[in-house]
Design a protein that fits this description.
The structure holds two protein chains of two kinds. Chain A is mainly alpha-helical. Chain A has 13 helices and two strands; from the N terminus they run αααααβααααβαααα. Chain A has a two-stranded antiparallel ribbon. Chain A is globular and about 60 Å long. By secondary structure, chain B is mostly helical. Chain B has one domain: ABC transporter involved in vitamin B12 uptake, BtuC (Orthogonal Bundle), CATH 1.10.3470. Chain B is about 75% helix and about 5% strand. Chain B contains eleven helices and four strands. In chain B, the strands form two sheets. In chain B, strands 1-4 form a two-stranded antiparallel ribbon. In chain B, strand 2 and strand 3 form a beta hairpin. Chain B is globular. Chains A and B meet through helix 5, helix 10 and helix 12 of A and helix 4, helix 9 and helix 11 of B.
């Protein structure tokens, strides 16, 4: 496990997953694309959760990224997939830069509620903006890649899959490096006790704000990826239940491991497609039961299955986990 | 001037049922320190139960007044029973965990309830408007109102006063206040906190279902109700201060008036305005309008 968490090894793994897309059957490919783009936004929530704050309004940045890309694509005709991901990330990041410093003064339930409120402000505004299609939203064209137009649906799917996996993979590598950096470890200290961090002469609010902006960038890019996959955008992107599902992926993953986020997102998509197949119309029932089971039996998330062995005896979910240094495994 | 009166009266009607929902939410938060997302689900459950009872009574040819009373009682008692079972059977397993984890547990319950109501009542809208004509029409100056809507205002005031009286002037209420302030010391003084938790949770959900039943004749009962209501009542309790009865009243009136004003003046901004108020209140007074700041342990 140790060697696998080296950045270079992780890049190799990402490449391996891209090549795997060549042999995957079509239904798995689109499922994996959705899972990859969802895990990007959930990864942002995990980054933020390491400071002890959970955002229930990541839909705000998700929608900002999606709408930003969609508007630029429709008015300037920019359809390049890589450029779209970057635009999404920039849109999310800019909004995060505005909101982050304001919101970092809050903790716990107020933090969650305020993020939820802001995303619902955007939702309320989008639903009533007829210029943007109101609650129906609008369509965007097929994405291209470096000037190539993909007419074969199989090729187009593979292109989307590769872009999603590479974008999410790079974010995962960056997050792993960040988790081990001074600032990343400081985030865990803020989670344990933000006042003590302040007494050490470090601004806890700044650390929360930085993590918030990172989460916003990831959410914006994820919104762009999801827009490319659906080729349609509507205010549902900003609705609170959308954000709730991403929080669910993050909780399922736990905050210790980057790899767990991908596994959790894939697990959720698999459960979703199987429940659509065998238990149609009861998707929420399945999701709710699944969520309860995870919280009850895996309080530290899926990641704890392979990282928690050396942390035996520490209280599950106590404000201060026994060890401050975690080993994010890939 | 006419517009102003319309907004005030519409706002108060809106505020009245929202207040009853928010009262339950704030009570549950005060005692159990849980922000209960499933609250909206119980509002919807109350509305569905009420619609069923009303339709049943109408089919049997019984007077609508009887149906009206029966629907309120049915919704309140079912919610109380389900609430107590839920707290004892499920929530208590998660006590002591992070407040965000508890929030997610109630989110899971919300998702479960959403589909369970769909399985029982289907996805088609249900109309049960018989009690809506019970109180006739009332004219206020040049404006005409449905009597039922205006009756909601005193009903909400009575519920609010009832809860305030029960909390401040009865022995059980004093015990509940003691548990709110310090569960550990209350337990050592011989209070059975588990019982208080179950009671408070059940009672809070009962208020949600009661409000759902009250509004059922006004609306078409359909899926998606719970999600809209929980979003509004969240805003109300956060504006007023979590756990505060007066706060819930002020928050409900603010939200009701804001909603009525935006419907009449600026219909595009309906949802937007409410959340903007909530965001502004949180920026200025994070703990809400009616909540004292508390010192925290380092």
């Amino acid at each position: 496990m140790k060697i696998l968490s080296h950045p270079a090894a992780m890049l190799g793994i990402v490449l391996g997953f891209v090549l795997l897309g060549r042999v995957l059957p079509a239904w798995t490919l689109s499922l994996a694309t959705v899972a990859a783009s969802n895990s990007l936004i959930a990864l942002g929530i995990v980054v933020l959760a390491r400071t002890g704050n959970v955002s229930f309004g990541q839909g705000l940045f998700y929608a900002a990224g999606g709408y930003g890309v969609a508007l630029i694509a429709n008015s300037w005709g920019l359809t390049d997939a890589v450029a779209q991901v970057m635009i999404g990330a920039v849109c999310g990041g800019l909004l995060g830069l505005v909101i982050g410093p304001l919101i970092s003064r809050y903790t716990g339930i107020f933090f969650g509620m305020l993020t939820l409120a802001l995303s619902m402000v955007l939702y309320g505004a989008l639903v009533k903006t007829t210029a943007l299609g109101g609650s129906d939203g609008f369509n965007v064209g097929r994405p291209t890649l470096f000037g190539n137009v993909f007419t074969d649906p199989r090729e187009a799917d593979f292109m989307l899959y590769s872009v999603s996996v590479i974008a999410t993979g790079l974010a995962g590598v960056a997050a792993t490096v960040y988790f081990r950096s001074e600032l990343g470890l400081m985030s865990l200290a803020v989670r344990a006790n933000n006042l003590r961090v302040e007494y050490l002469g470090i601004s806890a609010n700044r650390i929360v704000a930085i993590n918030f902006v990172i989460a916003a960038v990831f959410a914006g890019a994820s919104g762009a990826l999801s827009l490319m996959a659906q080729r349609h955008i509507d205010p549902q992107f900003a609705y609170w239940t959308t954000s709730g599902e991403f929080v669910f992926v993050a909780i399922l993953a736990g905050y210790q491991s980057v790899a767990a986020v991908f596994v959790a997102s894939l697990a959720l998509e698999l459960v979703r497609s199987f429940s659509n197949l065998y238990l149609p119309n009861t998707w929420q029932l399945v999701l709710g039961a699944f969520l309860l089971a995870v919280i009850l039996f895996l309080p530290l998330g899926i990641g704890s299955l392979w990282t928690s062995t050396k942390r035996k005896g520490s209280e599950p979910d106590a404000p201060a986990p026994g060890a401050t240094v975690t080993e994010p495994a890939e | 001037m006419n517009l102003f009166f319309t907004i005030v009266i519409d706002g108060l009607i809106e505020a009245s049922w929202l207040f009853v929902v928010a009262l339950g939410l704030t009570l549950v938060f005060g005692v159990l320190k849980i922000l209960n997302i499933a609250h909206g689900g119980f509002y919807a459950l109350g509305a569905y139960l009420a619609a069923t009872v009303v339709t049943l009574f109408a089919a049997k040819g019984l007077p609508p007044a009887l149906g009206f009373v029966a629907m309120l009682l049915a919704a309140a008692f079912v919610a109380l029973a389900v609430g107590v079972m839920l707290e004892r059977g499920l929530l208590k397993m998660f006590y002591g965990r992070d407040e965000v984890v508890l929030l997610l547990v109630t989110y899971a319950v919300f998702l479960l309830l959403e589909d369970i109501t769909k399985l029982i009542w289907g996805v088609n809208p249900i109309l049960a408007t018989q009690p809506y004509e019970l109180f006739g029409n009332v004219s206020l100056g040049k404006l005409f109102y449905v009597g039922y809507d205006l009756v909601l205002i005193p009903v909400a005031m009575a519920s609010g006063l009832g809860v305030w009286f029960a909390l401040n002037r009865t022995v059980t209420g004093k015990i509940v206040s003691a548990v709110i302030h310090n569960p550990e010391i209350s337990a050592s003084m011989g209070v059975k906190i588990n019982r208080i938790y179950a009671l408070a949770f059940g009672f809070g959900l009962m208020l949600a279902a009661f409000a759902g039943a009250l509004t059922a004749p006004k609306i078409s009962v359909q899926p998606g109700l719970s999600s809209d209501v929980i979003i509004l009542s969240f805003a109300i309790v956060v504006i007023g201060g979590l756990g505060s009865v007066e706060g819930a009243a002020v928050g409900a009136i603010l939200v009701g008036l804001a909603r009525a004003a935006s419907v009449h003046i600026f219909p595009q901004g309906e949802l937007f305005v409410i959340y903007l108020i909530m965001a502004i209140v949180l920026m200025i007074r994070p703990e809400g309008l009616f909540q004292r700041e508390t010192a925290r342990r380092i």
